[in-house]
Design goal:
CATH class of the largest domain: Alpha Beta
CATH architecture of the largest domain: 3-Layer(aba) Sandwich
Structural class: alpha/beta
CATH superfamily of the largest domain: Vaccinia Virus protein VP39
Shape: globular
Helix content: 10-25%
Low-confidence stretches: none
Distance between the termini: 31 Å
Largest sheet: 6 strands, mixed
CATH topology of the largest domain: Rossmann fold
Length: 171
């Protein structure tokens, strides 16, 4: 279902000619796909790998929320999916930041972390982590992305610019 949705999205955005959608299983590893490593791997892994830590989501969201194979399998997959010097970008829960860094750091570095806060006066709920395979630069903690302000607009100006493709995450 996710692959079909991705194909539909590529079609709606006129990107079919430069998009390849491949079904795979993170537990089997990247090599099972028979693909060469990439320059970039971007992932939004399921946020939970412990059924006791989460009330069961709606049936249709279970696969997106609950990982059969935990964050360890996802990190291993991503590390194999990129060439040396390639970038890995993950968005995940802020409380799993230490796990993400620990799992990627044996083979990646040059971390850049952008906290994602719902409002400026609330703690980050998510983080976007960029790592470079074999990178050696010091870790950079970037300013947070604030999603909403209390002025009534749906998104903060910075978030709105990112959503409209007028700005990037600033890695």
């Amino acid at each position: 279902a996710a692959a079909a949705l991705a194909r539909e999205n590529a079609g709606l955005n006129g990107a079919e000619a430069r998009t390849t959608i491949v079904n795979g299983d993170v537990a089997r590893g990247f090599r099972a796909l028979g693909l060469p490593p990439f320059d970039w791997a971007i992932s939004n892994p399921p946020f939970f790998d412990d059924p006791a830590a989460l009330r069961a989501p709606a049936e249709g969201k279970l696969g997106a929320w609950m990982a059969d194979d935990g964050l360890t399998a996802w990190a291993g997959f991503l590390l194999k999916a990129v060439r040396e010097g390639g970038r890995i970008v993950i968005i995940h829960r802020a409380d799993r930041l230490a796990d993400i860094l620990s799992l990627l750091s044996p083979k990646a570095g040059s971390f850049a972390i952008r906290p994602i806060q719902p409002y400026a006066d609330q703690p980050a709920k998510r983080v976007v982590v960029q790592a470079i395979k074999t990178g050696k630069a010091p870790l950079r903690l970037l300013p947070p992305l604030i999603l909403h302000d209390r002025a009534g607009a749906k998104h903060s100006p910075q978030a709105e610019a990112i959503l409209r493709g007028e700005a990037g995450l600033g890695f």
